[in-house]
Design goal:
The chain is α+β, with helices and mostly antiparallel strands. It has helices at residues 70-80, 83-109, 213-246; strands at residues 7-18, 25-34, 43-50, 53-59, 64-67, 116-123, 131-140, 145-151, 154-156, 160-162, 166-167, 173-181, 189-195, 198-205. It has 2 domains: 5-109, Class II Histocompatibility Antigen, M Beta Chain, Chain B, domain 1 (Roll); 116-205, Immunoglobulin-like. It contains 3 helices and 14 strands. The structure holds 2-acetamido-2-deoxy-beta-D-glucopyranose. Keywords: Disulfide bond, Glycoprotein, Membrane, Signal, Transmembrane, Transmembrane helix. Residues 1-23 form the signal peptide.
Length: 253
């Protein structure tokens, strides 16, 4: 199950015991977890946490409590022996989670904007340094994206670093994944983006003939200079030819 599509909506965090900054913190966290549109797998989770340690959890899939510490186990045993408590908790799945999940689907989760994806090399490989490829995904919504690099279809994990998902400030996000890469001929390097807007994933291949902007500019300047040089040369030759044919040779005495 891809974490990307697993939506976990954490809600209603109750802070119940909090004496002071250095005090103890007991809180419960209720979650509605679902991965499918038809909500067939929706799960209600109710966690009890003391000082960051979860000691007791209700899980609607099991319709049971699980204890993780001595006191948690004792509480779980007591609650599991109480059918009223279990049916009360199970009903949260249908009464609390399902309507909320529907609301999230119809108002938020159905809004997704596909990113534009491109790969550029930020510098070329030299004998000393490998190339640096950057895969950028722009203007996607919502947050929650996975960018991976593939070499001939196989995922590459080493020498990969990524930025956070950066908020553009206009609801859209962007992300950049960097990969150090020593080019080998005949290899296909691609960048795969998984996002809710593209359920099947989006794969962009790196066009190794594509030069980075600085290099491209150098080529353009060089080519322009060459063309300009040729024009001047041709003009000069034409001018010379014209002049020399128009010249009347006066024999010197
Ligand atoms: C709830 O229980 C089910 C069935 O054992 C399990 O697959 C699922 O991961 C549990 N969920 C959590 C959040 O513990």
């Amino acid at each position: 199950m891809s974490t990307l599509y697993s939506l976990c909506i954490r809600a209603l965090i109750l802070l119940t015991v909090l004496s002071d900054i250095d005090g103890y913190l007991y809180h419960t966290q209720r979650e509605c977890r679902f991965t499918s549109r038809d909500l067939h797998d929706i799960e209600f989770i109710d966690r009890h946490i003391f000082n960051k340690l979860e000691f007791l959890r209700y899980n609607s899939t099991l319709n049971a409590y699980i204890g993780y510490t001595k006191i948690g186990v004792a509480n779980a045993e007591r609650a599991n022996a109480d059918p009223t408590e279990l049916s009360r908790q199970l009903s949260q799945r249908d009464r609390y989670c399902k309507p909320n999940a529907e609301t999230y689907y119809s108002n938020i989760l159905n809004k997704a904007v596909e990113p534009s994806v491109e790969i550029v090399s930020s510098h070329l490989a030299t004998s000393k340094h490998p190339a640096m490829l950057v895969c950028s995904a722009y203007d996607f919504y919502p947050q929650g994206i996975k960018v991976t690099w593939l070499r001939d279809g196989m995922e590459m994990t080493s020498d990969v670093t990524s930025t956070e998902e950066l908020a553009d400030g206009d609801w859209y996000y962007q992300i950049h994944s960097h990969m150090e890469y020593t080019p080998k001929s005949g290899e296909t390097i691609s960048c795969k983006v998984e996002h809710s807007s593209v359920p099947q994933g989006k794969v962009v291949n790196w066009d190794s003939s594509f030069l980075p902007e600085a290099e491209r500019n150098k080529v353009i300047i060089g080519a322009s200079a060459l063309v300009l040089g040729l024009i001047i040369t041709i003009a000069g030759v034409v001018y010379y030819k014209k002049k020399s044919t128009g010249r009347i040779l006066v024999p010197s005495s």
